[in-house]
Amino acid sequence: MYNMLIVDDEQWISQGLATMVKRMECKDIGDIIYKFSGKDGLDAFQQNTIDLILTDICMPEMSGLTFIEAIRKKSDVPIGVISGYEDFVYVDKAYKQGIVGYMLKPIMFEELKEIIDKMISILKRREEEHQWNQKRDTMYTHTLIENKINRFLQLVRQNDESHMSITREMEGIFPFPYYAVGLVKIKKSEHKVVKEIEDEMANIYFEGTKKNVYHMIDYKNDLVIIFNFLEPECYKDVCQYMENLKTFAKDKKEDIVYSISSYMHGFQNIYTLHNEAYEANRYNALIQQDQVIKYGDYAPLKKSGKEDFQNKIKHFQCAVEITDKKAMMGYIDELFTTERLKHYCFSLIEWLYKTTCHVLSQLVQSNEVEMITEDISQFLSIKELRIYLKSWILKNINEKEELNYQSPVELALEFIKHNYHKDISLTYVSNVVSLNYSYFSKLFKEYTGMKFIDYLTQFRLSKAKEMLEDSTWSIEEISKSVGYKNYRHFTTSFKRQYHIKPSEMRKKRQSSGFFNTKNHDAKSI
């Protein structure tokens, strides 16, 4: 609310103006102070927080113009002028001092309300401008610090000693000597979820004056929280903050994993703390402990222990060589469980998974990397990882058995049928069926009467033509769904094949009533 000062040497007028203002029932007006001389008005202005002023022009001792001039040396507070004289010289001088409006006595209610509304409007506009400038400055500072910290992490990772200059700069910004790093990793999510969690952070009270919290998006596009505090005893509050954040964001449907590093003295250790938070987070993502994992709890886990698995891996390798499905499944079920792996660090779990993938690659003759993923970070849990490995084994054993009685071209046609939407080529498919590129190309044309690329194009376009019947698909979605990365290339190919653009074909079918409005649950072809 805004406080108002009324200055008029006639007491009944000052009090009358105050009464009129109160009758307006303006929710923006707070206290109303009235004085009966320019000198007293100036004292009141200096001793109180005054947001808007109404003053008479002609007063003894200190005139209204002198009063306004004195105010203007200190403030640009909105001022409205009242007078019993319609003197242009007075009016002109008052407006040169930046007044909002000028009223002649006797003052009418509507006229007074108009002036006050105008002054309040000016104050609100200034507040909005101030808030915007503050927000802009805060955003600029936040972005600057975020860029500096990401640059620091990059330089340390590259062993570039120039990171020391950033250390000195950041220690001038962060007031306290101790640091810890929290990590909130949101898997398979959009930017809006990160923003929602950042908003939740504003609702969490970080008690005390000995610690600060700062959040940023790091170079891995994850939400990182930097805690800066005065003494080691504050670390327990840092951990509690992360627990509170997890509680606040528990209604988010996305898979979110929380972790917190240990604490260290000096900004130069941010890189180490950042790595600690990530290592603990990656472990927590797989083991799925329903808590914020602290690096201090994670650090004692076994970092060596490959020998614990060597015999099992040898037996697994033998099972793969003879395609013993039961033995392979038993290996996966025995080793890839939370109970078995929770005592090992993430790097050892990752080694075990990659070793398993390498052994499994013997099941297929193709050397294509895509045949099995070695990126453990894509899994949200040990259970999901276990399901993936077992599904992959079953699929590839079945394909291997089918290979014994299917011709290479038949196998290739089956592969195209199920993978036409992917980025496949003659080279890729020839590797799948384990044939030389040139020989496979010759066989394919003899069998189908078409070149491989022509067959693939025709197959994709026929699928696109079918999908045009479904009005819930946009044409751009259709182009991507049948394997075209470039929308224009798809349109050109479609017109070359059917002598009509896909959009025109859709309109033609729609106008003829030949249209299907099935939902997206029927996307698979």
TrEMBL record:
It holds the Pfam family HTH_18. InterPro entries: CheY-like_superfamily, Homeodomain-like_sf, HTH_AraC, Sig_transdc_resp-reg_receiver. Keywords: DNA-binding, Phosphoprotein, Transcription, Transcription regulation. GO terms for biological process: phosphorelay signal transduction system. The keyword Transport does not apply. Residues 505-525 are annotated as: Disordered. Residues 3-120 form the Response regulatory domain. The modification 4-aspartylphosphate is found at residue 56. One of its GO terms (molecular function) is sequence-specific DNA binding. Residues 410-508 form the HTH araC/xylS-type domain. It comes from the Bacteria. PROSITE patterns: HTH_ARAC_FAMILY_2 (PS01124), RESPONSE_REGULATORY (PS50110). May play the central regulatory role in sporulation. It may be an element of the effector pathway responsible for the activation of sporulation genes in response to nutritional stress. Spo0A may act in concert with spo0H (a sigma factor) to control the expression of some genes that are critical to the sporulation process. This is Stage 0 sporulation protein A homolog.
